[in-house]
Every structure is written in C-alpha cells, then in structure tokens.
Write a structure and sequence with these properties.
The protein is an all-alpha fold. Helices cover 89% and strands 0% of the residues. The longest helix is centred in the N-terminal third of the chain and has 32 residues. It starts with a helix and ends with a helix.
C-alpha cells in the first residue's frame, strides 16, 4: 500500500506542474494582452488548485499512516529535528506544501471576487507563481 500511494504521490507531482504551467501561461498571456477572463482561465486555475490539493492529501495520508519516515518522526519529534533528512520530510516539506496549496486556493477565491479581468489575471499570475515557487522548492 505504501508503494502504491507513494507512486501516486510522485505521479501527481507531474500533473501539478502541468496544470500550473497551463494556468501560468493563460494568466500571463491574459495579463499581457488584455484578453477577457473566460471559463477556460477559471478552469485552468481550479485544476491547478485541485491537483495540488489531491497531491497534499496523498502526502498527508503517507505522512500520518503509511510512511516509515513520517511515523518515525511522529514518534520522536526531537530526534527528527536533529536529522536534516527526516526534518525535511517531517516538517519543512509539509508546511511549505500547505502554504503553496493555500496560495493556490487564495488565487481561485481572489479571481472570483476581482472586479476586473485585469485584476483576475494579475491575482492568478502572482499567486500561482508564488504557490509554484513554494511547491517546486520541495521537489
């Protein structure tokens, strides 16, 4: 079970990157050309946030239930903090990824509430860029 979920988590990483690239291209292109915000932009942004959320859920399932590394860290957090490799997977990676997921969902919410298409594109471009920077830092 661990191998299967870990494999799914690894495959999802590429789907996250692909959906992020699509969302970024659409956002920056719309920002540069002054194009109208359409359903396609909203779907590409929501797809990024959704795949990233699924990636996080798989990771949390691994961390709390399946991963020997996560279970070891949870059993003795003090020792986990002294080992850089364990600390990365026990603390740094999950926190950074949760921040990235949060930014992706903030992007979705802010684009829905924006009053102009230019603001929608700007919000999406900035927040998805920041989210992707946080997330790819952890790959």
């Amino acid at each position: 079970m661990h191998s299967f979920v870990l494999g799914a988590h690894n495959v999802m990483r590429w789907l996250v990157i692909l959906t992020a690239i699509v969302a970024l291209i659409r956002s920056y292109r719309g920002l540069a050309t002054g194009a109208p915000w359409t359903r396609r932009e909203a779907v590409s942004l929501s797809s990024y946030a959704g795949t990233l959320s699924l990636e996080m859920l798989l990771g949390l399932f691994l961390y709390f239930f399946l991963s020997p590394l996560g279970l070891r860290a949870l059993s003795d957090m003090g020792a986990a903090m002294r080992d850089p490799n364990v600390r990365f997977f026990a603390l740094e990676h999950p926190i950074t990824m949760m921040l990235g997921v949060g930014l992706a969902h903030i992007a979705v919410a802010r684009t829905r509430k924006a009053s102009t298409d230019a603001n929608r594109f700007r919000n999406a471009a900035i927040l998805v860029s920041l989210s992707l920077l946080l997330d790819t830092e952890q790959l």
